[in-house]
Amino acid sequence: MTDDGKRRWKGPPKEKKQGSGRRMSERKIIAYNAKDESSKRWIERQLSDPYVQLAKKENYRARAAYKLIEVDEKTGLLKGAKRVVDLGSAPGGWLQVCLRRGVSEIAGIDLLAIDPLPGAHIVQGDINEPEDVARLLEGLGGPPDLVLSDMAANTTGHKQTDSLRTAALAETALWFASEYLVTGGNFCSKVFQGGATQDMLNDLKRMFKTVKHVKPPASRAGSPELFVVALGFRGRS
Prior knowledge:
By secondary structure, the protein is α/β, with parallel strands linked by helices. It has two domains: 24-48, no CATH class; 65-233, Vaccinia Virus protein VP39 (Rossmann fold). 38% of the residues lie in helices and 18% in strands. It has helices at 24-33, 37-48, 50-57, 65-75, 93-100, 130-137, 159-180, 198-207; strands spanning 83-87, 105-110, 120-124, 146-149, 186-192, 208-214, 225-233. Helix 5 (93-100) links the parallel strand 1 and strand 2. Helix 1 runs antiparallel to helix 2 (37-48). The radius of gyration is 18 Å and the shape is globular.
């Protein structure tokens, strides 16, 4: 289960408010109602996570929004971006960040359904399918100047397997960027463990002027995720 809202627990039926937050006893009751120990731990973590609370307060769909915000603050990733593609965009937190930071055209795609978001062109589909890619790009007036990817495979609990599966998705995102990104454009993708694979890192350094890895504070300390940021696409030869 990821922590970015792609699989969400919706909680018990709403009751009349009796305070500004949940008491510890309420958290324990909710946890005991969970089906297994893993779900209990996830629910407890969500309830106590300051980024989850901040996302609710600021009306972001997922705490993952703050990962992109912090990556942008550190690297200037979104500066000047006008046309953006967001790969693996459910539930839409990164789409919201882009819109709030002045992106004029944003198109997102995910295998999961995403609730409509004013100003965003959203496609439920697979970037490995040409028809879905065509539908995605119909939402932009031209080629993107920024490609984002928060894609991650469902975790298995085996670190090496999870890292390899996420690396494959990152490489797919880089392939997409190499096909559609405008010269001078930027790229950001989730990776696991030690960062991008050596082959991917070599490709990034060949294709972009600047490449770096970022671990935003919103990414939990125990999470193996990093984000690789590549700025200044050199163009297709």
